[in-house]
Backbone:
DNA sequence: CGGGCCGCATGACATCTGTCATACGGCACT
DNA sequence: AGTGCCGTATGACAGATGTCATGCGGCCCG
């Protein structure tokens, strides 16, 4: 029989990361050979340890798990990619798939699915929650332009139009125009709702 | 030597919960005797299993880990309480302590601290991050009145003044006054920032 | 009993925000 | 060459939001 599956674990919360490592450690055929707590340490660690599967949390400092996935996919295409996230946002699933992910798991799925997903992706299968896949397809693509997203992101923490304009090197009127179109595209009433909805959909 | 320490684990994300259980399962002297995924199932499970220590995540459906802690503290005062959270918000620490928690851990602390905290609280010790404790003391108490908190919470998802007034059975002017005083107390410029800051401090 | 804070309210005012029309250059697709 | 979208900008306008002064009744504390 073949040797153990070598896994890289990327997750910023140490306690969760080490707990997941403990969980995977219980499996005979899986070995966690590297752990990192930042997105921007993923590639280096993957190179250093010759991993079979990378398990990537999305929310991480440095860069997101999705960005890390895209990078790995480009640099080490033979590494299988499992994206793990707290939030089952359809937009996340879409981005993860575009980044070359082989599996997409949400953290409130049963723990058994984790080891299972690792084995499946190594066998060439793709693993995604059918409900989430349906939601991602139903919702359609992100309607926001890059600029609209930038403005929304910057507006998220309560900045005023003048501050947004300064931060993005735009005129105040332009900022208002972008916010206005974003608000209309998302069918909401103000910037706060727009930020909330865009976040929920994973469009931000 | 004494028998194993019986632990109840409350955490809504199955994968994290089972991973933490796996982690604790590696310790010879600790046994996870019950797992729940909702705050409002904690008391019942604790009663059913005669637990020594309850490990409570804060963010849970049903009721928060802090509310569950307060309930356990009242109903089963001999059970030791460890509160676990993603966010190291000083206000959370304060509330947890007021609810009778014996330990307060953030999830980005090393995993080893978890088992250690379980043993320590059982030995009658209290476990809190000194940095966080300092922050909680430095920041002072929540300056917001109950009404101000209500209005901020309701305003968080982008409701308009008219909607807030209707939802809270207040006049529109009163809503604006509350928001205005909250904005001043938090030393910010608008409601969105006020919500953000209040959240960060755990005052919401 | 008086002072102070809270909850609640109103009115006036200044500023911020959202909408709309309009404009121009660039780029892509037909 | 024409159409359409994007990025950028302006000006005008209506409505939402934030500030301030002021008022009243209730409650607690000294």
Residues:
């Amino acid at each position: 029989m073949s040797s153990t599956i070598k896994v890289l674990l990327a997750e910023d919360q140490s306690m969760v990361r080490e707990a997941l490592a403990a969980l995977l450690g219980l499996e005979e055929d899986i070995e966690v050979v590297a752990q990192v707590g930042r997105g921007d340490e993923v590639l280096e660690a993957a190179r250093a340890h010759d991993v079979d599967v990378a398990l990537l949390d999305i929310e991480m400092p440095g860069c997101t798990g999705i960005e890390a996935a895209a990078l790995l996919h480009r640099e080490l295409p033979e590494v299988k990619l499992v994206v793990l996230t707290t939030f089952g946002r359809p937009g996340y699933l879409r981005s993860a798939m575009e980044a070359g992910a082989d599996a997409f798991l949400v953290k409130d799925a049963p723990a058994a699915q984790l080891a299972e997903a690792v084995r499946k992706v190594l066998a060439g299968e793709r693993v995604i929650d059918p409900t989430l896949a349906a939601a991602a397809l139903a919702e359609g693509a992100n309607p926001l332009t890059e600029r609209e997203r930038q403005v929304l992101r910057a507006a998220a923490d309560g900045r005023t139009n003048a501050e947004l304009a300064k931060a993005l090197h735009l005129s105040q009127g332009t900022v208002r125009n972008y916010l206005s179109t974003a608000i209309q595209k998302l069918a909401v009433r103000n910037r706060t709702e727009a930020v909330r909805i865009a976040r929920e959909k994973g469009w931000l």
